[in-house]
Automatic annotation (TrEMBL):
It comes from Zunongwangia endophytica. Residues 42-186 form the Thioredoxin domain. Keywords: Membrane, Transmembrane, Transmembrane helix. InterPro entries: AhpC/TSA, Thioredoxin-like_sf, Thioredoxin_domain, Thioredoxin_ResA/DsbE_sf. The chain crosses the membrane at residues 9-26. This is TlpA family protein disulfide reductase. The lineage of its organism: Bacteria, Pseudomonadati, Bacteroidota, Flavobacteriia, Flavobacteriales.
Amino acid sequence: MKKLFQNEWVNIILVVIIIAMVLPQTRKPIAIVFNKLIASSPKLTDEEDRQKIESYNWTLEDRFGNDVNFSQYQDQVILINYWATWCPPCIAEMPSLQNVYQDYKDEVVFLFISGEELETSQGFMNAKGYNLPVYRMKTNYPDPLEGYKLPTSYLIDKNGAIVIKKEGAADWNSTNFRNTLDKLLKN
């Protein structure tokens, strides 16, 4: 009898979870929490497998409508993050990105690129209390910096090599990632 009671509770919990995942109002918050739970520190790309940026010829638009030439960031450590306000994994990793940005904003170039209107992406940042710099692409990205999957992030060293390419949510505020940034900044 006790075993039957336990199984009924398991069934009830499973039904509630399934219903919550089907309802649009609860699907996104649940997906965000799930992505936060599974996010881990991004992994370094093996040195022999690192791709280099083919060109720094890329124009972005900042939140004020100003053109920003990617070429001005050549020879700097750069973190590019492709994201969207409607993307649960993107939202899940934003707090960790905000923490890293707060500590490294004067040393690392941060480019948070969204295909949405700048008012939409900046409004999201304002509503969440983030001060991450948002951009839109005005010209196509240089190879190999594609961002078809959201989120996709790239950490680029001073020589233009992609040290990390991460698709999906990550814990950017990890000790491993911060050590990687520190090492890249010293080189």
